[in-house]
Amino acid sequence: MNMPYPTSSSTATPTHTFPAHIEHQLDKATALCTQQGARMTAQRRDVLGLILMHARPVGAYDLLEELKTAERRPAPPTVYRALDFLLEHGLIHRIERLSAFIPCTNLRHCSHTHEHSEACLHTAQFLICRDCKTVTEIADTTVLETLKHICKNENFVIQSTSVEVEGLCADCASKHPTKELPHQGV
Amino acid sequence: MNMPYPTSSSTATPTHTFPAHIEHQLDKATALCTQQGARMTAQRRDVLGLILMHARPVGAYDLLEELKTAERRPAPPTVYRALDFLLEHGLIHRIERLSAFIPCTNLRHCSHTHEHSEACLHTAQFLICRDCKTVTEIADTTVLETLKHICKNENFVIQSTSVEVEGLCADCASKHPTKELPHQGV
DNA sequence: GAATGCAATGTAATACTATTACATTTTCTC
DNA sequence: GAGAAAATGTAATAGTATTACATTGCATTC
Question: Record-annotated residues binding Zn(2+) (chains A, B) (predicted)?
Fold first, then answer.
């Protein structure tokens, strides 16, 4: 009983339906794709929807499980292809340390335009809580500016960056004995 | 025919021997371990030696291959345990994007003391060349300072960080048509 | 509206990375 | 030397990702 969505350059019927606020974010993502001349297919929309449903980073195989329906049992490449697409278009981020994926925060925000395009260019920064596994995307641009500056000096051409800070979020830190950076390096 | 090494708090005979300059770096690493009350065993020394032998990041299973001798066929946990130890003591770094390992640059430097301990505290920064796979560790401290500042504001307790910049090194960039950050984000 | 070409998806197999659990050996401390 | 702790050996398995090739769907042109 799924009705086709009013996606401008999209394909068939999504196999999943999501709560209204998620659908809204999906529509926004679809609009962004159209704008970039990319196709937000049903498959990709489903995967993005599932990622948006999670409060925490999701693994590819978790998504694979959740994609299963009575009719279809997708294989790994299905999910990885969708993830690649979503990554390329800046709709999600990959958390390297977790081998997991989260939506780009900007998708959750109200603004429909993508003024922040540059800040999202595969150059996001994250705070990862070891305890509750929550990941927060940082809006700061200073880090990226610094990195750009360094790379300019070295004639290194930046294509993408990942900045991941692992530790304890404020909530978890208040519940546990504080453990700071534990040991000495060279 | 391997003779025991003069390691201060070490164990049995290493199964591998390395060129003099590598042995020198290994001795330095051993001294650092002793200083920290940690044991640089033959196994760990072998693994570190192999990592030092590579110009580029090495995967765990590559090391596993290289550890094989006529007598011994180590299993994965052997390598992973050694890697964990070396990581914990700041002797190597893990490049998240590559699931691979490189020596801490300071091991290669001349200074015997570890004045830079803080800068190495699981908080290194890397430039990764997509083309030649070479990884350069950056000495800069600004990025870490910025991150510390941000985290302080958010009451986030930092335990470790990774900053990975992927792109083209100066050499490779000069050989190829320049590809900058390719697409737009949200 | 058939033909063509390209993008997207389906499918099976496999490669690569990492951990668990438990037995054994080595080393340290007393 | 005995006991405890650290390190290693071993087998099995879990988790993540890719390759290669077949098929389908969509878009453009004639």
Answer: 129, 132, 169, 172
